[in-house]
């Protein structure tokens, strides 16, 4: 209740605690041992269905946890990333969000748009591109099997994920994509240049 005796938050929660460390301030609510978030006027922002809720990094967004899975909400209660992933982090020096389920990786924007489905292994960046693998697996630090493609810094697929192997050559600014009997040549913007027979 407020100072006038008016109900702010209905009597349905097991516990409600203000957190002065959050700015702006919110109530952390608990119901049946599940956590959620309420605004100061009692409006439910995040329902009490999670094992834990806390602010994420230096943003105003909230990270929710359910078992080993994590998700992200905005301060207004909009889902940015559904609670389906084992890891959520910033993707390199971009504004994109990197998500993982076991060895599978994907990308979201901070607005909640899925840029790259969580179906790939994303490898190291070289000259603004990253090789991606679908259907393979990591063993001893190396990706084996599957098919290869490439994405740019915005997470957009610039080389389709269909090749046996891809080798980027930074010096000549070209990418050789092994298609079996033929290798396709691309530049680092993903523009197709030509095809060459391997034999």
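-> sequence recovered:
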């Amino acid at each position: 209740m407020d100072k006038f005796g008016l109900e702010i938050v209905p009597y349905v929660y097991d516990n409600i605690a203000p957190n002065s460390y959050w700015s702006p301030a919110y109530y952390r609510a608990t119901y049946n041992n599940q956590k959620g978030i309420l605004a100061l006027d009692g409006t439910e922002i995040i329902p009490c269905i999670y094992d834990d809720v806390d602010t994420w990094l230096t943003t105003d967004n909230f990270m929710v946890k359910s078992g080993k899975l994590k998700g992200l909400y905005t301060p207004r209660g909009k889902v940015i990333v559904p609670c389906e992933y084992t890891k959520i982090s910033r993707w390199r020096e971009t504004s994109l969000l990197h998500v993982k389920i076991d060895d599978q990786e994907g990308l979201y924007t901070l607005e909640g748009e899925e840029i790259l489905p969580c179906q790939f292994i994303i490898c190291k960046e070289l000259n603004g591109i990253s090789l991606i693998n679908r259907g393979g697996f990591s063993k001893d630090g190396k990706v084996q099997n599957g098919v290869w493609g490439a994405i740019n810094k915005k997470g957009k697929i610039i080389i389709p994920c269909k090749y046996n192997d891809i080798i980027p050559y930074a010096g000549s600014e070209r990418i050789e994509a092994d298609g079996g009997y033929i290798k396709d040549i691309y530049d680092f913007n993903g523009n197709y240049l030509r095809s060459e027979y391997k034999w």
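The CA atoms of residues 148 and 163 lie 5 Å apart.
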